[in-house]
Design brief:
Helix content: over 70%
Shape: globular
Number of domains: 1
Number of helices: 4
Low-confidence stretches: none
Structural class: mainly alpha
Order of helices and strands: HEEHHH
Strand order of the largest sheet: 1-2
Distance between the termini: 27 Å
C-alpha cells in the first residue's frame, strides 16, 4: 500500500508560510502599504492570506483531512476579521462556531 505524499508537502507549505507570517509581523507596522506597479496594498491583506495558508496547511497535515483544515483556517481568519472590526461580543464567536459546525456537518453528510 502506497502512502500519500500530499501531507508532507502541506506541512512544508505550512511551515514556510508561518515563517513568512512571523517575518511580516515582526518587520512591518500594521498600517504599512506596499506597492506593486501603481497599486497599493495594505500589509494586513498579506497577513490574513499567510495566516489562512499556514493554518490550512498545518491543520490539514495534522488532521489528514483537507476539508476540515479549510474550515479551521477559515474559522481563524473569520474570527480575527471580526475582532479587527471590533465585534468582540462572545455571541459572535458562538455564531461563527455554530456556522462552521453546521457547514462541517452539511459537507460530511454529502
Amino acid at each position: 500500500m502506497r502512502r500519500k505524499k500530499w501531507p508532507i508537502q502541506l506541512f512544508i507549505i505550512g511551515l514556510l508560510s508561518l515563517v513568512f507570517l512571523l517575518y511580516i509581523v515582526f518587520s512591518f507596522p500594521p498600517n504599512y502599504q506596499f506597492s506593486i506597479s501603481h497599486f497599493k496594498f495594505p500589509i494586513i491583506l498579506v497577513f490574513f492570506l499567510l495566516l489562512f495558508l499556514s493554518s490550512y496547511s498545518i491543520f490539514s497535515f495534522l488532521i489528514n483531512n483537507k476539508r476540515q483544515g479549510l474550515f479551521i483556517g477559515l474559522f481563524i481568519v473569520s474570527y480575527l476579521l471580526l475582532r479587527l472590526n471590533h465585534l468582540t461580543h462572545p455571541f459572535f464567536l458562538i455564531l461563527l462556531l455554530a456556522l462552521f459546525i453546521i457547514l462541517e456537518l452539511f459537507f460530511k453528510q454529502k
